[in-house]
């Protein structure tokens, strides 16, 4: 369904899942579309969503007991379910640092690159 129409598919996501579209420039979009138009390039993303119901079932089982003790950093955009990501990890892990970015959507590296870089470096120190 998407083969040959990657531009329509990807532009829809950039238009609807970013809070601030300006950092995702036309040139950046062209490059993403070029790369995702290669054979099988979209497969991983589709597999993630294909498995989502099985993942949900497994995660419900895993959430019965907090088994993860390593530090976990989760960063989510407020306009893209950022709080849901944090609470999901808190159900299975004991040491979660969660950050929800206001005025940010799904594309954090594009929308807030400096903030993201700063917090990843701090986390791994």
- CATH topology category name: Rossmann fold
Strand order of the largest sheet: 1-2
* Secondary-structure class: mainly alpha
Write the H/E string, N to C. HHHHEHEHH
Seen as an oligomer or otherwise, the chain set is single chain
Mean pLDDT over all positions: 90
Helix content: 40-55%
User: Which geometry do the CA atoms define?
Assistant: globular
**Main sheet record:** 2 strands, parallel
Could you name the ranges where pLDDT drops below 50 across 5 or more consecutive residues? Answer: none
CATH architectural name = 3-Layer(aba) Sandwich
| Distance, first to last CA | 44 Å
Estimated radius of gyration: 17 Å
What is the CATH superfamily classification?
Answer: Alpha/Beta hydrolase fold, catalytic domain
Strand content: 5-15%
CATH class: Alpha Beta
Q: How many H/I helices?
A: 7
How many domains? 1
Structure description:
The chain has one domain (6-124): Rossmann fold. The chain has helices at residues 6-16, 26-36, 43-50, 52-62, 82-90, 108-111, 113-124, and strands at 72-77, 96-101. 11% of the residues are buried. The chain has 125 residues and is mostly helical. The longest helix is centred in the C-terminal third of the chain and has 12 residues, at 113-124. The protein is globular, with a radius of gyration of 17 Å. It is built from 7 helices and 2 strands, in the order ααααβαβαα. The N and C termini lie far apart (44 Å). Helices cover 53% and strands 10% of the residues.
């Amino acid at each position: 369904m998407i083969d040959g129409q990657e531009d329509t598919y990807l532009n829809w996501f950039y238009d609807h899942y970013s809070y601030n579209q300006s950092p995702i420039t036309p040139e950046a979009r062209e490059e993403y579309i070029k790369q995702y138009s290669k054979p099988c390039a979209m497969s991983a993303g589709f597999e993630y969503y294909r498995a989502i119901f099985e993942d949900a079932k497994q995660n419900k089982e895993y959430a019965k007991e907090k088994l993860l003790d390593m530090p976990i950093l989760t960063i989510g955009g407020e306009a893209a379910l950022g709080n849901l990501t944090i609470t999901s990890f808190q159900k299975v892990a004991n040491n979660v640092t969660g950050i929800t970015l206001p005025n940010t959507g799904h594309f954090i590296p594009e929308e807030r690159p400096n903030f993201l870089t700063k917090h990843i470096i701090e986390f791994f120190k």
